[in-house]
Amino acid sequence: xxxxxxxxxxxxxxxxxxxxxxxxxxxxxxxxxxxxxxxxxxxxxxxxxxxxxxxxxxxxxxxxxxxxxxxxxxxxxxxxxxxxxxxxxxxxxxxxxxxxxxxxxxxxxxxxxxxxxxxxxxxxxxxxxxxxxxxxxxxxxxxxxxxxxxxxxxxxxxxxxxxxxxxxxxxxxxxxxxxxxxxxxxxxxxxxxxxxxxxxxxxxxxxxxxxxxxxxxxxxxxxxxxxxxxxxxxxxxxxxxxxxxxxxxxxxxxxxxxxxxxxxxxxxxxxxxxxxxxxxxxxxxxxxxxxxxxxxxxxxxxxxxxxxxxxxxxxxxxxxxxxxxxxxxxxxxxxxxxxxxxxxxxxxxxxxxxxxxxxxxxxxxxxxxxxxxxxxxxxxx
Length: 381
Ligand SMILES: Cc1cc2nc3c(=O)[nH]c(=O)nc-3n(C[C@H](O)[C@H](O)[C@H](O)COP(=O)(O)OP(=O)(O)OC[C@H]3O[C@@H](n4cnc5c(N)ncnc54)[C@H](O)[C@@H]3O)c2cc1C
Description:
By secondary structure, the protein is of the alpha+beta class. 49% of the residues lie in helices and 15% in strands. It has 3 domains: 9-120, Butyryl-Coa Dehydrogenase, subunit A, domain 1 (Orthogonal Bundle); 123-230, Butyryl-CoA Dehydrogenase, subunit A, domain 2 (Beta Barrel); 234-379, Butyryl-CoA Dehydrogenase, subunit A, domain 3 (Up-down Bundle).
């Protein structure tokens, strides 16, 4: 194995405490949460107490102002243990960073301490029933009316949607201005006219809540605008690379872990009087997967390093998301095959990983959208 060079001893210490936390507070309950369709809300508060939420929040708001390496450690430990329920990646890697970067001082004072403690879960609502890949096509409007915006529309597939206390809603403040008419608005749960739909039933991520959200004449004060009016699309484009890197990080750690579990399994499982590890087909499959994962690990680690230095560009992040999620799906499919019928049983981590991995090629921008971004950049003058 090629040694990883991006972490320092303090990250490994953090990793140890994160892992202990997950083993104690999540592993024993995860199967039940899968049946419940969501995790226990109290886990957020426990994670907050341990300092595991929103590592990037600056010290003046009670946070630690840590870089993405700490997010990486959290993401990796969850992925290795197959804990797809807690929507911490979304909160830590995607939504809270919007507040850190774009919120006003008053918004930061109001929300960030609660994001750290777990009192406030933040979701982001871009996708609508009629549009996902084409973000410019959102129909939800936020029309100015005196000191307020009036929001109308609906969103779907929103991660942490059931439990969210605050939602960053992508709206058109000027429906005739295309991308320049898009703005981000903060809507708190309980605001009149804002309703959460049912918890959507999915083929994977069973313990993670995913919801439709409805907005009918929802009035929010103008202070709830995140950043500047009309800049929403620009902010989305700025933040999506971190979301895409986060997907690559989880996917890579997940496939490494599943491969290791498969190596252990093939040594134990016997067929025709010998461990299935003895068959050349098994060895060739494992060798191929291990080699491809090694190459992916080097690339993803380099992307993490570049991101921490503020140098990861959107195109490279798209490549990482696409390649890592494609490989994750391929590897897990092969690993499942090596488990035979047991691989199809829900109690086996490889079966859960198979179901969980599928979405990685879809959310955060589909892999086809990643190809559009990469192709466009290649062909640009
Ligand atoms: C479990 C889960 C969690 C999610 N969490 C969130 C969340 O928290 N917040 C949020 O806003 N959204 C979330 N999403 C939504 C997700 O980001 C979208 O599903 C995704 O962006 C794709 O959009 P769509 O479903 O509308 O597919 P569509 O855009 O309808 O795409 C359908 C197919 O057409 C392809 N396609 C589209 N345009 C092109 C093109 N120009 N060229 C070639 N092919 C194209 C796509 O690649 C895809 O294969 C989540 C989705 C799921 C399932």
